[in-house]
Amino acid sequence: MTTYRTVKGYNIKKVSSDPANVKEGQIWYNSSTSQIKIAPNIAAWASGGALNTGRNQVVGVGTQTASIAFAGFDGTNRSALQKNIMDQVGQKLVI
């Protein structure tokens, strides 16, 4: 079995209370609570402006400032999309 020192190159610090000013990703052992603690690693996928391709019938979730959008129709090759759906459904599709 490997140890944290073998993997990361240093031991986990043993303290009696949680440190006041932790750094992101810092790890320590709190001997009072008998717990290993890790400062959260907070990150984002990406941040940016508007969608790079305009779409309709898009699916999205979230709030105005924290959301994702996916799928949708960008306006190209609509007849192929309709044919594919009609072939699968077996009936005329009105869009």
Written account of the structure:
- This protein has 95 residues and is of the alpha+beta class.
- Among the domains are: 4-38, no CATH class; 59-89, no CATH class.
- The protein contains two helices and five strands.
- The protein has helices at residues 4-8, 78-89, and strands spanning 13-15, 27-30, 35-38, 59-62, 67-70.
- The strands form two sheets. A three-stranded mixed beta sheet has the order 1-2-3, with no helix packed on it. It has a two-stranded antiparallel ribbon with strand order 4-5.
- β2 (27-30) and β3 form a beta hairpin.
- The protein is elongated, with a radius of gyration of 26 Å.
- 0% of the residues are buried.
What is this structure, in a nutshell?
This protein is of the alpha+beta class and 95 residues long. It has helices spanning 4-8, 78-89; strands spanning 13-15, 27-30, 35-38, 59-62, 67-70.
Keywords:
two-stranded antiparallel sheet, 3-stranded mixed β-sheet, 95 residues
Strand count, sense and barrel status of the largest sheet are: 3 strands, mixed
Shape: elongated
Number of helices: 2
User: Which structural category do the helix and sheet elements fall into?
Assistant: alpha+beta
* Strand arrangement, major sheet: 1-2-3
Radius of gyration: 26 Å
- The overall strand count is 5
Helix-strand sequence: HEEEEEH
Mean pLDDT: 75
pLDDT under 50 segments (min length 5)? none
Estimate what percentage of residues fall within beta strands: 15-25%
- Percent helix among the residues? 10-25%
Distance between the termini: 61 Å
